[in-house]
Amino acid sequence: xxxxxxxxxxxxxxxxxxxxxxxxxLTECKRVVLDALENGYRLxxxxxxxxxxxxxxxxxxxxxxxxxxxFVTTKVWLPFYGDQMTIDAVKRSLKRMSLDYLDLVLLxxxxxxxxxxxxxxxxxxxxxxxxxxxxxxxxxxxxxxxSHHAEIPPAVNQxxxxxxxxxxxxxxxxxxxxxxxxxxxxxxEAQEPILREPLVHQLAAKYHKTPGQILLRFLxxxxxxxxxxxxxxxxxxxxxxxxxxxxxxxxxxMLAKLDKGRWLSPYRxxxxxxxxxxxxxxxxxxxxxxx
Length: 291
Description:
With 291 residues, the chain is of the alpha/beta class. It is built from 12 helices and 10 strands.
């Protein structure tokens, strides 16, 4: 089981969890979540747009791990931004997962009526349906803007963070404002030579770890929460076995020099203009019944 850190509202969140993005086969998703819970994972991260909340909930109900020991996160999708729409969408997520409360709910993207959506999350936290609230894919200027409209500061901002996209200015801002940084695509979605970096392999040999374990430990030593996706049992086990070693400041400094400052996720690279966001909202409006 991994260590925890305290969010700015006082609740504890595990420092490592399982992301279930692209686990669209519900039987497989349930199996993976059950496997993760059985082997020490206590943070499960899903989203409305992943279409697997029901499988996550089924695994939690079937697991021998008590519900209060599992930290469950979901994210509100763009068409459901707005005061009442967001409240209704979160309640549908609760119903799909057959849960009485969620530990963390995030706004998935920084576009549309995220002011109204965030007000809705604040209300849900006050009512006890959600223990903590936050955002995803916000940059520092968007976080600063939101802070002027919010009564409850975001507890988490979930962004792409890996050795090739190290988010240095954003991390500095979030540390100063006590907003935890949660890393999606911590292994770069395994689409780049990130796992073949010579330095990473040198450190893996030194510490008797895999390259993936070195990359994840680098992020956690920067203070990040990591939520790598894994569908295979061995990958699940490899990902969580990162807490028995610590790299030196010099080694962290060398890894920091691998930063390329660019998005690795093809999806994230596409979402760089207002028009892309507007198209995304339009394309997903017809999913309201499904969600």
